[in-house]
Structure formats: structure tokens, C-alpha cells
Write a structure and sequence with these properties.
The structure holds 2 protein chains of 2 kinds.
Chain A (H helix, E strand, L loop, with lengths): L4 E2 L9 H5 L5 E4 L2 E4 L8 H5 L5 E2 L9 H5 L3 E4 L10 H16 L3 E7 L5 H7 L4 E6 L8 H15 L3 E5 L2 H13 L4 E5 L1 E5 L4 E8 L4 E6 L6 E5 L16 E4 L11 E7 L1 H4 L7 E5 L9 H10 L3 E4 L1 H5 L20 E5 L5 H7 L4 E6 L12 E4 L2 H19 L1
Parallel strand pairs in A: 5-6, 5-8, 6-7, 7-14, 8-13, 9-13, 16-17, 16-18, 18-19, 19-20
Antiparallel strand pairs in A: 1-4, 2-3, 10-11, 11-12
Chain B lengths: L1 E5 L2 E3 L5 E2 L6 E2 L5 E3 L1 H17 L2 E7 L5 H10 L3 E5 L9 H15 L4 E5 L10 H8 L4 E11 L3 E8 L2 E8 L2 E5 L11 H9 L4 E2 L19 E6 L8 E3 L3 H14 L8
Parallel strand pairs in B: 1-6, 1-8, 6-7, 7-13, 8-12, 9-12
Antiparallel strand pairs in B: 2-5, 3-4, 9-10, 10-11
Classes of the chains: A alpha/beta, B alpha/beta.
């Protein structure tokens, strides 16, 4: 097994690499860094070593034929009951940029039933080619038949990149598709770029509870697949009337799904659309009790946002689980995230730290939430929030 | 009903602290635990066994010390355990991980239901469950929040979606991944703990599963980590100083100035 090379004569035993290693693959033995089998050749140690004692070997990967032949960037255009989530427009925006850089076509794949009007929408958002499988057997989302159809399409057309939203549907379906076509998949990416020399997709995602970022590649198989966190990528510019090539995909006569959707229950009110919200105001244990959420609701309403909650408040039954942000709840990245009385456990930070603007109000100056906040206020939220509400009303009054 | 629950040993991220200066993890003294989501998978399995009878096997892959999570699962009340451990498994991505797990499940024969937690808290991929289902050509339902009907050859489950939930019929054999709504994990029983103490965890390696070394671990993985770095706090970060009257008004003004909030047309 490949392993990093540590020059024992150069190593000073400073320990920088041990702190940098995300995999606990390095330890100091007799004041020399020693590597173990947890090493994944990520190179974090090589980068921090002040005396250049560490070399990471280039990994030679046997390219299979697919890497040479694969061509084009694809986006999985998720839809449910005819409605496409926002992330589809974001994927097309990002997909367009990647396709232009690679000088290839941008394809969108649409599976479902009664999809009139949706291909046109995908063209307007930047797709050059839209593959549509419109069949009543695809009316409901079933992983097996969706995988079958996707797998066949990928094998036939061999795209080099496939992006999908890191939604409930995407994170259920796409791992299965990746396994069906035998390729690599990176989950919940927040950054995508192209290595122009090798035509590789550089997929960046939070790892280890969001405390480090990892860039991941899939050098030897195609397509290079990634699910992408909603509300992180920029939507492309919509061009009304833009057109492209429409390719209709027929299902095989014996295609069917083993699972059967008996009922679709939409409960947006109850569920709280945290993933789609532009503004989220979240309350933590610092609220002191369920009545503390009244103030959170007031600020959320004033800002046109929705109410979020930490695990602590949900476990204490101050508010329903549908509001929970974080690793056990929803991952969000709104334009504005206001954290009130939230200390900022790692699991919470993972779920919100890619928000565009983070405001934190907490009485504890050492609360970890301040490490990710753009604007931090150390103070009593019951004093600060009423002032914020007044100031908002005052400014809105001026604007008439 | 013959049930396999897939579990993973992970660092206890609840006790991982972030170094505010360097943004790196302080991992000293961090214990290893069962992935918290897998406790819901265990709980679901125990509930189903109560309703439908049968037996539960807890399956994990990891270094030799991962035998601990199998013993813990025995403590919770599962019947048997299996640890997949081999130096060749090290550095596996989800593709190589599912190769080993699926081979182990296939060798068990007659498995009716595989239950996974929705994701592991260290990798957060949620990819292993669906990957196993595809390799074994089994139907799957991910993100299950309730089991509403339990029969020998079929389950009816509620699947959490972004805009609500679906009621889905799943024929068995099949695979589900579960979310926390399936039920709070019960505590380990005294009897279970006693049994766990004495339980010898069976271990299998790549060769036992009929897998070549290049099918598993880092060598059998399609994805490669090429770089890791500390997340950059995007944009400026500042602490506002002063009284509540000052800071409350100032933060609103800053948000308006930066056009994060719009106060009028």
C-alpha cells in the first residue's frame, strides 16, 4: 500500500504534521513523525512540514477507457409532482461554468411524468441538451427504477461529470446510481472547480463535522459525480426562449420498481422550509424556555425569514424537530443566519456555517458560535433583539 | 425476520472542540462511539424484532478496536455481530466500503432487511446504505422516519422528503436507512451488557469475503482526497462593542448597508 515518505534525518519532531493530519495517521515516536495505515495520502502533512521532510508520492491510477471517452457535463434535474427545487437552477448555473471551461455541452436529465414545460425551463437556465424520460412509471420517486433509467443513460452517453442536488431525493438516488455505473461520488459539495490540465473535477466539501474542508477527485472513473449543497452555488442567468436539443428517452417494457409510493404528503408548514429560506433566525438554549421563541419568531417575521432551532431546544421540547438546524436536523445556507442564544456545538456549526452572513448574539464571549459569525454581539439577547426590532421598524418607516 | 444493522465507529464529535486560532480539531482524549445515527438503526431493528420476531446481526467495518461497537450493539440487545477488519480495508471510500459490507451480507444468506443510519457523523456522506442496496440489487427506501406496517414479506414506511414525507411500500428483502424519528434508542439492558462482556466478536478479512486487495480499501476506491485545509470564514468577521442599544442598532445598520436586508424599495 502506498504511504507517505518521511525523511528521518530532516524531521525535527516539531509535531506540526500531527496536528494537521485529519485522519490521525501520524504520531511522534522517539521525536520522529511516523505514519500508520490510516494515511490516505491527502498531503495535509506535506503542506505544513516546515523542513520539507515529508513527500507524498503521486498516485498512479490505471485509467479505464471511460476517462478518455467521457464527454459533457450533466445535471440531474430533480422534480417532484412537476415542481423543481431551486437547487436545479443552481446546478445548471454551476454546470454551465464547468461545461464552458471544459468546452463541452451541458446536459440536463429529467425523469418523471407529465413534464410539459420543464425542458423549456431547463434550456432557459442554460442546458444545451435535455434528456427526458416521461413515463407514468416514473411519476413517483422510486430509487430502483430511477437508478435503472439513469444508469442506462449514463452508460449510453458517457458524461464526464454528473451533478445533483444534495436534497433528500438526490442523496437517496445518486449514491445508488454511482454504484450502478461503478464510479466515485462526493457528497454535499460546497465548491466545484476544474483542473484544466487533467480535466478533473475538484470537489470540495466540509469533512469531519465541517471543521476542515477536503478537496476530492475521482481520477480513474467516469462520470465524476457530486451532490451539491443547496443554496451555495450561484444560479445562472435565465434566458427566456433559449432552446436546445431535446432527447426523449423510452423506458424498456419490463422496467418497473419494486417499491411503491402509496401516498405523498406535503407538509411544508409543519416541516418548515428551512432549506429554501433566505433568512433564518435560530434560537438556542440561551432563550431560557419555550417562551423565548416568541422573540425569535418576532425577529424572523420582521426579517421575512423562518425560525430555526438547535438540538438542545428541540430535545427540551421547546419547539418541534422540523425547525432543527445542524447535523441531526437540516443543513442550511441562507443569505442571513441570526443565532440567538446559540452556543455553537460542532454539530450545529456544520449545519449552518456556509450561510452568507451570520449574526450571533450570546452572553458568553467564548461561545464557539462567534468563531463562524460575521457579526458577533456579546450581550443579553432579550435586550439586543428588541433594539434590532425597533431599528428595523424605524428604518422601514423612513423608507415609507 | 433476519435483520442486519450496519454500524460504524466514529470519533465522538460532541466532544471535539475547534481550536479558535487555527480552526483545526482538538482531538486529544476524544473517545470513539457508535455513530449516533446508527443507534436509531439499532432501535428500529429492536422494534421490528419485537413485532415480527427473528434475529439481528450488527455488522461493522473498521480497525480491530471497532469490535467495541459490536460489543456495545450486543449490549443493546442484538443477537450476533460481525467485524470486517483487514489492513487492506484502510482508506476505503464509500464504493470500496460497500464492496466489503455487501459481500459480508451476501455470505450471511437469507437476510430480509438491512438497516443503516442515515449517515455517519464523521464522513456525512449518506452513501453507504444506497450503495449496499444497489450492489445486492435490493429495493431501498432512504431516510425512513416510521414503520407503519410490518409483515414477513413487506414493510410500509414513511420516507422523509424535503417537502414532507412519502408513504412507501417496500417488499422484502430490502434496505432502509433511518432518521431519528423512528424512536429514541432504548438504553442497553443489564442482561445485554453481561453478554457483551463475554461476547467474542467474529472477524473477517478481505480473503474471507472472497475479495481481492484491489477491490477494497484505498486501492479499491474511486475517490481520492487530494487536499485538506481549514475552512475560511467568508468575509470579514467582527465583534460589535457597546451596549445593547448600540450593538442592536449597529448590526441592523450594517446588514442594511451591505444589502443583506432590504428596508424599502
Amino acid at each position: 500500500m502506498a504511504i507517505i515518505d518521511i525523511d528521518k534525518d530532516l524531521c525535527t519532531g516539531c509535531g506540526e504534521c500531527i496536528d494537521a493530519c485529519p485522519f490521525e495517521a501520524l504520531e511522534l515516536i522517539d521525536d520522529i513523525a511516523v505514519v500508520n495505515e490510516a494515511c490516505t495520502l491527502c498531503g495535509a502533512c506535506e503542506e505544513v512540514c516546515p523542513v520539507e521532510a515529508i513527500t507524498v508520492p503521486e498516485v498512479e491510477q490505471a485509467d479505464d477507457a471511460r476517462t478518455a471517452e467521457a464527454h459533457g457535463v450533466w445535471v440531474y434535474a430533480e422534480q417532484r409532482a412537476g415542481a423543481m427545487p431551486e437547487v436545479v437552477a443552481e446546478l445548471l448555473g454551476q454546470g454551465r461554468r464547468l461545461a464552458d471551461e471544459l468546452e463541452v455541452e451541458l446536459g440536463a436529465v429529467l425523469l418523471g411524468h407529465n413534464l410539459d414545460g420543464q425542458p423549456e425551463e431547463l434550456f432557459a437556465l442554460g442546458a444545451d441538451v435535455v434528456y427526458v424520460a416521461d413515463d407514468e412509471r416514473l411519476a413517483d420517486f422510486n430509487d430502483d427504477i430511477y437508478t435503472e433509467v439513469m444508469g442506462r443513460l449514463i452508460q449510453e452517453h458517457q458524461p464526464e461529470v454528473l451533478l445533483a442536488g444534495a436534497t433528500s431525493l438526490g442523496r437517496s438516488l445518486i449514491p445508488r446510481v454511482a454504484t450502478a455505473v461503478a464510479s466515485g461520488l462526493t457528497a454535499d459539495c460546497t465548491g466545484l472547480a476544474i483542473d484544466p490540465e487533467k480535466r478533473l473535477l475538484l470537489q470540495t466539501r466540509p469533512a469531519f463535522g465541517g471543521n476542515i474542508m477536503a478537496t476530492i477527485i475521482c481520477p480513474s472513473a467516469r462520470p465524476q459525480m457530486a451532490t451539491v449543497r443547496p443554496r451555495v452555488m450561484k444560479q445562472g442567468e435565465r434566458q427566456e426562449g433559449r432552446s436546445g436539443q431535446l432527447i426523449k428517452v423510452e423506458l424498456a417494457p419490463d422496467d418497473k420498481s419494486a417499491t411503491r409510493v402509496l401516498e405523498v404528503v406535503q407538509t411544508l408548514d409543519e416541516q418548515v422550509n428551512l432549506t429554501g429560506a433566505e433568512v433564518i433566525v435560530t434560537g438556542g438554549r440561551g432563550l431560557g424556555g419555550p417562551e423565548g421563541f416568541d422573540l425569535v419568531r418576532q425577529l424572523a417575521t420582521a426579517l421575512g425569514g423562518v425560525v430555526g432551532a438547535t438540538r438542545g431546544t428541540v430535545d427540551a421540547e421547546w419547539i418541534g424537530h422540523a425547525h432543527q438546524v445542524g447535523q441531526t436536523g437540516r443543513t442550511v445556507s441562507p443569505k442571513l443566519y441570526v443565532a440567538l442564544g446559540v452556543s455553537g456545538a460542532v454539530q450545529h456549526l456544520v449545519g449552518m456555517q456556509s450561510s452568507d452572513n451570520i449574526v450571533a448574539v450570546n452572553s458568553d464571549p467564548n461561545a464557539p458560535i462567534f468563531s463562524v459569525a460575521h457579526y458577533g454581539i456579546v450581550g443579553d439577547l432579550f435586550e439586543v433583539v428588541p433594539v434590532m426590532l425597533d431599528r428595523l421598524q424605524q428604518l422601514r418607516g423612513q423608507q415609507g | 425476520m433476519k435483520i442486519v444493522v450496519c454500524i460504524k465507529q466514529v470519533p465522538d464529535t460532541a466532544h471535539v472542540r475547534l481550536d479558535p486560532e487555527t480552526h483545526t480539531l482538538k482531538r486529544e482524549g476524544v473517545e470513539s462511539i457508535i455513530n449516533p445515527f446508527d443507534l436509531f438503526a439499532l432501535e428500529a431493528a429492536l422494534q421490528l424484532r419485537e413485532q415480527a420476531g427473528g434475529e439481528i446481526t450488527a455488522l461493522t467495518m473498521g480497525p480491530p478496536q471497532a469490535a467495541e461497537v459490536i460489543k456495545e450493539a450486543i449490549g443493546y440487545g442484538v443477537d450476533e455481530g460481525l467485524l470486517l477488519s483487514d489492513r487492506a480495508f484502510a482508506g476505503a471510500d464509500t464504493w470500496a466500503t460497500t464492496a466489503a459490507l455487501a459481500a459480508a451480507i451476501e455470505a450471511m444468506e437469507g437476510v430480509d432487511l438491512i438497516i443503516c443510519g442515515k449517515q455517519a457523523v464523521d464522513g456525512d456522506t449518506a452513501q453507504v446504505g444506497p450503495g449496499i442496496a444497489q450492489r445486492l440489487e435490493l429495493p431501498q427506501v432512504a431516510f425512513v422516519k416510521a414503520f407503519t406496517e410490518v409483515a414477513a414479506d413487506k414493510l410500509v414506511v414513511e420516507r422523509q422528503m424535503d417537502d414532507g414525507y412519502d408513504v412507501v411500500a417496500l417488499p422484502l428483502p430490502g434496505l432502509v436507512t433511518v432518521v431519528r424519528e423512528v424512536g429514541e434508542p432504548r438504553p442497553p439492558s443489564l442482561k445485554g451488557k453481561m453478554r457483551a462482556k463475554k461476547y467474542e466478536v467474529p472477524v473477517k478479512g478481505a480473503a474471507d469475503l472472497g475479495l481481492a486487495e484491489d477491490q477494497v480499501g484505498l486501492a479499491g476506491s474511486y475517490t481520492q482526497v487530494v487536499k485538506v485545509f481549514a475552512p475560511q470564514a467568508s468575509g470579514e468577521q467582527r465583534m460589535l462593542e457597546g451596549s445593547a442599544e448600540q450593538t442592536g442598532a449597529q448590526v441592523v445598520d450594517l446588514l442594511v448597508d451591505n444589502q443583506v436586508i432590504v428596508v424599502g424599495s
